[in-house]
Specification:
22% helix; five-stranded mixed sheet; alpha+beta; 6 helices; spliceosome; single chain; 533 residues
């Protein structure tokens, strides 16, 4: 097997140059090696990691084997001519060739080093993500254990544990937050709401209605301009779910001024709460099944699954599971009311359920069930909560949108365009409370004015399907996503203002401060779109 130069790669059998061996065992042409040593300051080019010095005295010259023919001595190559112009040209070509070969050698070494560093960085990043996720789970488990221990100490009468008394009369007289107390044995009402719960819901919704202008003004200040919106592109990607089961079926964010928390339910059967402002994972909760609907407030996150389970997880110091409810049918829509104690859910069998979260007892109690008339009853497909909390819209398979009114405790309106059956795939309220967007299986998105109960616009033929809908905080834009990407329209103009490319159909879209976050049912990453820096 003929030897080759480890710098240039050319065969050493056909070269007239002197061949040497380095102390590290590498064979190469002496001329190229000396040139390389002159460039890098006398460091062995094959030992860049240890940076071993190398001098010409350390090189061992290899003698070429003689090949006698007919008993005669081997022919000696004549010296190179140097007096004519042609040899001079050959010398220049040789120098250029040497420089090219040396540059190629350096490039190969740099590529090898870069590959090694990139592999190490990717491994360290993956290990860091796993460690953070494991620590978050251990922290949540420790908090739950501490809470159980505190509860056991309280039941046993203290056993020497001294409770701190208020330091002043003002602190002692400070009113506690109004919390609902329920009889665990009470049966849920049919098409009605208990008086105490109705009062709490009405009070909180009245406060939101009074502050709606201020909330919209703050949301409009965060909304991007038309020029910035046209520049939107993917700027970041976050993957906080496990890679074993890829996919995020649903996503939600907190409402109002505190809209910096994002909750996702993954196919890894976990719920993740992410703080976008601090860019940290706050909690990871084991849900035990794949979520079909999710919502989040500043105090809790609630999720439902295909079998009808609804679970509530408390946030903050007492983070952990804080109540479950079995509804017996697929949960297609779920919302946390402004009271932060009441949860409403829509099931696929045509029921609209209201439940109350008793935090102190870690219990979620079913208090009301609403059903429409049999002639209007259809299988529900999706749902959304009005920003004031007094309305809940539910889409069904016939293409109609049903509006349940908490104030009047009844079905307030049914909106449908045409007689043809076109199942509803997604619904969303505008933050100003005036418009509702309804997406259909035909990929048409219809915008209704609730004040007049009138269809004001229809957008179709822009996407092959629509699986996610959302308005921005100021009610200025509406984003719709599905097979074919994401389209953003301007409210009242109803034209396509921006288009975002997404590999997989979105399962959820949320507007955050200056960005749009998009999840998909086919991958575990959440993509953030905004103006590139």
């Amino acid at each position: 097997m003929p030897f080759t130069c480890e710098i240039s790669g050319e065969s050493l059998a056909s070269t007239a140059d002197e061949v040497v061996v380095t102390p590290s065992g590498h064979i190469c042409i002496k001329r190229l090696l000396l040139t390389k040593l002159a460039e890098n300051g006398g460091v062995d080019p094959f030992e860049t990691i240890r940076e071993l010095p190398l001098t010409e005295d350390q090189l061992v010259t290899l003698a070429k084997p003689s090949q006698p023919q007919g008993g005669q001595a081997p022919a000696i190559a004549p010296p190179r001519p140097q007096a004519t112009s042609l040899p001079n040209m050959l010398h220049l070509v040789q120098k250029e060739y040497d420089a090219l070969v040396l540059e190629l050698f350096d490039t190969r070494k740099a590529l090898e080093d870069t590959r090694r560093e990139l592999s190490q960085a990717l491994y360290q990043n993956d290990a860091a993500v796993r460690v953070v996720a494991r620590l978050a789970q251990e922290r949540d488990a420790a908090r739950q254990e501490l809470e159980r221990w505190d509860a056991s100490v309280g039941k046993s009468g203290g056993n020497g544990v001294k409770r701190l008394e208020p330091s002043s009369q003002e602190e002692a007289d400070e009113p506690e937050p109004k919390r609902r107390r329920l009889d665990p044995s009470a049966d849920p009402l049919s098409n009605d709401i208990p008086a105490d719960d109705f009062e709490m819901i009405s009070d909180e919704c009245g406060k939101l209605m009074a502050n709606r202008k201020a909330i919209l003004k703050a949301g409009a200040a965060e909304a991007p301009s038309q020029e910035d919106l046209s520049k939107f592109a993917e700027i970041d990607t976050k993957a906080w779910h496990k890679s074993t089961n890829k996919g995020i079926p649903c996503m939600a964010q907190t409402r109002g001024p505190e809209s910096n928390l994002i909750a996702t339910a993954g196919k890894d059967k976990q719920l993740v709460v992410y703080n976008q402002e601090d860019q940290v994972i706050l909690h990871t909760f084991p849900f035990g099944s794949v979520g079909t609907s999710i919502d989040i407030s500043t105090e809790m996150v609630a999720a439902g699954d295909a079998k009808g389970k609804v679970a509530v997880f408390a946030l903050g110091e007492d983070a952990g599971l804080s109540g479950e409810l079995a509804l017996g049918a697929r949960v297609v829509g779920l919302g946390i009311l402004p009271t932060k104690q009441h949860i409403c859910a829509a099931t696929s069998d045509g029921r609209f359920v209201l439940a109350c979260w008793v935090a102190e007892e870690k219990r979620l109690q079913h208090i009301s069930t609403f059903t429409s008339d049999e002639e209007e009853k259809e299988d529900y497909t999706c749902g959304a909560l009005h920003p004031d909390g007094l309305l809940y819209v539910i889409g069904n398979k016939s293409g109609a949108s049903l509006f349940w009114d908490f104030k009047n405790k009844k079905l307030a309106a049914v909106l449908k365009d045409g007689e043809e059956s076109d199942p509803v795939t997604a619904v969303a309220f505008s933050n100003n409370g005036y418009h509702v967007a309804v997406a259909h299986e035909s990929a048409a998105v219809k915008f209704w004015d609730l004040r007049k109960q009138k269809l004001v616009a229809t957008i179709k033929d822009e996407l092959d399907s629509v699986t996610a809908l959302v308005f921005d905080k100021g009610g200025k834009y509406a984003a719709m996503g599905g097979k074919g990407g994401i389209k953003i329209t301007t409210v009242k103009e109803w034209g396509i203002s921006a288009s975002l490319e997404n590999k997989n159909p979105p399962s959820g879209i949320v507007w955050t401060k200056g960005t749009v976050a998009v999840s998909s049912g086919n991958e575990r990453a959440v993509h953030f779109f905004g103006v590139p820096p």
